Amino acid sequence: RDPRASAGRRYRLGVMGGTFDPIHHGHLVAASEVASRFALDEVVFVPTGQPWQKTDREVSGAEDRYLMTVIATASNPRFSVSRVDIDRPGVTYTYDTLTDLRAERGDDVEMFFITGADALAQMFSWRRVDELFRLAHFVGCTRPGVELTRPAIDAMPADRITLLEIPALSISSTACRARVGQGDPIWYLVPDGIVQYIAKRGLYAEPPMISTPLY
Ligand code: ATP
Ligand code: MG
After folding, report:
1. Ligand 1 center to residue 143 CA distance, Å?
2. What domain of life does the UniProt record list for this protein's source (predicted)?
């Protein structure tokens, strides 16, 4: 048992999966809000391996996405980052993420998988949906521009899924990448350290900048 869990209560672990290319304040607000509302002991951010359903574009290297996630979460004592998905070869499935975290953290841990409304709407195409609901409670956060349709929610087990209204931040990684490519600022959309890291590594630049290998 983790010493940070209060006596007689299971450790409550939030799991925030994402491509994080780059991580932005929308991700951080969602994690913080769910942590507060669900009294989570910790939220672990899990950058995906070869991103699922994103094979249509070049995605930044896993190490860059991992390091940006570390930089963005470093100041919060309840936030951590896991390498389980980037260290597992191949496409990331949420089932594998949750199974690996369960194996790592033990059966005593109660898991809460945090998603935005768009990711939640896609859940039926996820692998082993029924088993997912046994592994974790799902928390779907509102996201500007995404309408969750009633039938999609009604088909999910009501006791294993919660929809949560969070402060609306109309920020996406796609828009951040496009802004960098056009030379528009991303200050205040992402943490300061991420602005600096992107510039230092030449990420998302148009034309592509030749950056030195990380390792
Ligand atoms: P991309 O544009 O590349 O898809 P993204 O901004 O959607 O990037 P992801 O890494 O795909 O970021 O998202 C990880 C998780 O965070 C998903 O569950 C997504 O729904 C959620 N999320 C991302 N941005 C927001 C936001 N602004 N508000 C609420 N949830 C968000
Ligand atoms: Mg997305």
Report:
1. 8
2. Bacteria
Q: Splitting the chain (215 residues) into consecutive groups of 10 residues, what average pLDDT does each group show?
A: 66 97 98 98 94 59 96 98 95 94 96 95 80 94 88 80 95 98 98 98 88 74
Determine contact, residues 19/51, Cβ cutoff 8 Å: yes
Can you tell me which atom of ligand 1 is nearest the CA of 171?
27
110 lines ligand 1 (CB under 6 A): no
Of the ligands numbered here, which is closest to the C-alpha atom of 118? 1
Domains (ranges, CATH) in the chain? 12-168 (3.40.50.620)
Q: Which residues contact 80 (CB under 8 A, 6 or more apart)?
A: 42, 43, 44, 45, 73
Would you call the peptide bond into 22 cis, given omega within 30 degrees of 0 as the criterion?
yes
Which residue(s) pair with 15 in the sheet?
A: 44, 113
- CA of residue 190 to ligand 1 center, whole Å: 13
Complex prediction ipTM:
0.99
Please state, in angstroms and rounded to a whole number, the distance separating the CA atoms of residues 82 and 65: 12
**Cα angle for residues 114, 84, 110 (degrees, 5° grid):** 45
Any atom of ligand 1 within 6 Å of the Cβ of 169 = yes
22 Cβ inside 6 Å of ligand 1? no
What is the value of pTM for the model shown?
0.93
